Amino acid sequence: MEKDKVKVNIVNKQKAEKIPTGIRMLIRRACIAVLKMEEFHDSAEVEVSFVDDKQIHEMNLQFRNIDRPTDVLSFPLGEDGVYDINPASGAKMLGDIVISVEHAKAQAEEYGHTFQREMAFLTVHSMLHLLGYDHVNGGIEAETMREKEEAVLLQMGLTREVTFLE
What we know:
The protein is α/β, with parallel strands linked by helices. Helices cover 43% and strands 19% of the residues. The chain has 5 helices and 5 strands. Strands 1, 2, 3, 4 and 5 form a 5-stranded mixed β-sheet that branches. The longest helix has 17 residues, at 139-155. It is globular.
């Protein structure tokens, strides 16, 4: 997977949290790492938006009929491996990822790991959704998704920093 074959557009649409230096590069690395793991060899485009809890709450209500904020929303443009093609670039348009930066910061604190790991996790999780993975019904699909998430994060050097005491 060549970096120039993957275009990740990142737009910050929130003012609640400052975006630390390096986060945009981390998001791009996470997207590329998932595509590499999934042996996705075509040119690809992904849109990533940073929003606040209020914005993601509105989107969650509008698109999922769930009346509360969430950490990340995925809007896949493809189905069964078939994607729209950007006529200008010839790249497959995978879809949109919307991350609540406020939620990500709170979850990083709650889970005891870095904001960077949380942002990378949410990106990897959402990228898998864009590629057709789902966890809503639990079971083997959810387990497969979790294993892939951890494999990508491990490959990126973002291991779990927390050890659970028995």
